[in-house]
Design a protein that fits this description.
By secondary structure, the chain is mainly beta. Helix content is 9%, strand content 61%.
């Protein structure tokens, strides 16, 4: 009788253990394995934002684990979106489709509490502004940027681009389950480069390209406000540059706007 009770207890404990393992595995968002000096480390990140690690010891070939939720995590994020600039009478219209905004960021998140996280980031952003009027070419002159009508062929593409190294800080509030997230913060950056590109068809119908490889008077520094909205596994961003896109007196007075999707 005692043996039957013992077997029954072991059976139900095994079922409970398997159920717990199944629940844990369904909660895992990301897994990574690392091998350092012959020892394998296992890292798991869960849907609620917590994480754990464990490693295999060489002597006993078993696992030592630390399941205490970490307050800090890091990840690579990619912003992919569109650029616009604020309306002005002195600048041509920008075509959103083709005015790509790409940000590559290494992001660290400090989980102060279940409902409040602090995101910090460092990375690079690439601005592209595609003019609506493809016959307008951005010409760099000693006095500044001039948008001129191109008369030596039919324009097919006219763009200005700039790249920046940035840092960001975005305080974020979350619901208890982490499925809804709202962050409002800011960023600052220093310019890395810039150029102009104009593509046209000449009188023979052949495609030609004109590049202005020097900086197009884009501001050396940028800073602005950033908002992030997350629902489930889907995240959006919105950036607004408080500084003007061009150096003072070298171009029209306007501010850059970017919005799109965050991938991680």
């Amino acid at each position: 009788m005692n043996r039957l009770v013992l077997i029954t207890a072991v059976f139900f404990m095994s079922i409970g253990s398997l159920a717990a393992q199944s629940a844990d595995s369904s909660n895992v968002k990301k897994k990574k394995d690392y091998t350092v000096f012959g020892k394998t480390w296992y890292y798991e990140k869960y849907n609620d934002g917590t994480s754990s690690w464990q490693f295999e010891t060489e002597e006993h070939n078993n696992y030592v684990s630390n399941n205490k939720p970490s307050k800090f995590s890091s990840d690579l994020e990619v912003d992919l979106g569109l650029n616009l600039w604020s309306p002005t009478d002195n600048a041509p219209q920008v075509k959103p489709w083709g005015s790509w905004n790409v940000n590559l960021n290494m992001v660290g998140t400090y989980k102060a509490s279940k409902n409040f996280h602090l995101k910090t980031g460092i990375g690079a952003s690439f601005y592209n502004f595609k003019l609506e009027d493809t016959d307008l070419i951005a010409v760099k002159t000693p006095s500044g940027i001039s948008f001129e009508e191109f008369t030596e062929g039919r324009g097919t593409k006219s763009k200005i681009s700039a790249s920046y190294a940035n840092i960001s800080l975005v305080p974020t509030i979350l619901t208890n389950d982490g499925k809804l997230r709202l962050g409002i913060g800011g960023y600052a950056g220093v310019r890395l480069g810039g150029r102009g590109k104009f593509v046209y068809d000449d009188a023979s119908g052949d495609q030609q390209k004109i590049f202005e490889k020097s900086n197009m008077y884009a501001s050396n520094f940028r800073y602005g406000g950033r908002a992030e909205l997350g629902v489930g596994d889907f995240d959006l961003f919105f950036n607004y540059d408080f500084n003007e896109l061009f150096e003072s007196g070298k171009g029209p007075k306007l501010n850059a706007i970017s919005f799109g999707v965050i991938f991680n």
